[in-house]
Amino acid sequence: MFVSNILVTGGAGYIGSHACKALKAAGYTPVTFDNLVTGWRDAVKFGPFEEGELSDRARLDAVFAQYQPAAVMHFAALSQVGEAMREPGRYWRNNVEGSLTLIEASVAAGCKRFVFSSTCATYGDHDNVVLDEDTVQLPLNAYGASKRAIEDMLRDFGASDGLESVIFRYFNVAGADPEAEVGEFHRPETHLVPLMLEAIDGKRDALTVFGTDYDTPDGTCIRDYVHVCDLVDAHVMGLKWLQDGRGSEVFNLGTGSGFSVMEVIEQSRAVTNRVVPYDIGPRRAGDATKLVSGSTRAARDLGWTPKRSTMTQMIEDAWRWHKTGQYEK
Ligand code: UDP
After folding, report:
1. What is the reported pLDDT for 1?
2. Cβ contacts of residue 248 below 8 Å, gap of 6+?
3. Is 214 one of the annotated active-site residues of the chain?
4. Where would you tag: which of 47, 54, 74, 116 has the fewest CB atoms within 10 A of its CB?
5. What's phi and psi for 75, nearest 5 deg?
6. Residue 214: CB within 6 Å of ligand 1?
7. pLDDT value at position 285?
8. Is the Cβ atom of 105 under 6 angstroms away from ligand 1?
9. Structural domains in the chain?
């Protein structure tokens, strides 16, 4: 029997909700498992919803038994660098312990395919080093460290139980569903693009640029931005990769092009035709100077080609979504 249920942890969050839409379009049934701490009930539009904590093994066992998922897509995590610097314990407990419980429940249920949401924050700061999947991982904060630990965990359970995993190390995710059914909305918001759009729209006073004294051409941090729809397309491809028996693999997901914070501000001004109110603040602890993917593995082996990941398209889609005002209570 073809089992089409996919358990999507964090399916009520920004990336998870887009993944659910992509999974449904590809013929799967995404089953969202989310505690709604940072996710939104309104974002669960493409399949069943099961509320629960990753730390609740009995609840996970019941969900695995009910849906018999063919694979897990694991997005649920705390993911803010600033918060991770202030409260590392929450990151280790929630991300690492929660993932361990999930992996154990999954293996016990006989579900041995995992697509995992990891991050370029596992690399840390590398001067003039091309960041590919073999770059040594030296995270600067508990967020990156927790994700690296989960990667290790997946490899260990691969050796012990035959768990197969596709690990995606994301660079900076931006944009929104072009049909604006789902999009990016965090409370509190900490990410550059939505903060900027809220400032443009008068919903906050100004964006603060975190540091202008980095060793970059304009002094602000450089990131590699990838459209959320391209990112989740890769996840569906990763799932098929596992279902085709191609085994465990790690892929960077980035475009290879870097944009400074000031360049993102300038592009947002151009796309929205509005002034971007901003001021200059100190560096944010835990930020790397430059994170740009130097890998072509996802393109070469997975056949992944980003289609909407130009900065203009990402801001246009995010702006369209922003103007719908969804999830705002
Ligand atoms: N950033 C900023 N002001 C903000 C939020 C972010 O200058 O209010 C910068 C941040 O220092 C980084 C980039 O924007 O260089 C992207 O940050 P974000 O928090 O969106 O993603 P991260 O890089 O932490 O995954």
Report:
1. 45
2. 154, 155, 158, 164, 165, 166, 167
3. no
4. 47
5. -105, -25
6. no
7. 87
8. no
9. 5-174+224-253 (3.40.50.720), 192-223+256-328 (3.90.25.10)
| CB-based contact 236:164 (threshold 8 Å) | no
> Mind spelling out the 3-state secondary structure of 194-221?
HHHHHHHCCCCCCEEEECCCCCCCCCCC
The finding on whether 191 has its CB within 6 A of some atom of ligand 1 is: yes
Atom of ligand 1 nearest to the CA of 222: 15
Q: Quick check: 2 pLDDT over 70?
A: no
The sign of the CA dihedral 21, 22, 24, 28 is: negative
Q: Which is the closest atom of ligand 1 to the Cα of 191?
A: 20
What residue owns the CA closest to ligand 1's atom 20?
191
Which of 143, 170, 214, 225 is the catalytic position? 143
Which residue, by CA, sits nearest to atom 19 of ligand 1? 191
Distance CA 304, CA 302 (A): 5
Q: Residue 85 Cα, ligand 1 centroid: separation in angstroms?
A: 14
> Distance between alpha carbon 300 and the CA centroid of its chain, in Å?
22
- Whole-model pTM? 0.96
Mean pLDDT (whole number) for 187-213: 95
| The dihedral formed by the CA atoms of 80, 199, 253 and 312, expressed in degrees to the nearest 10 | 180
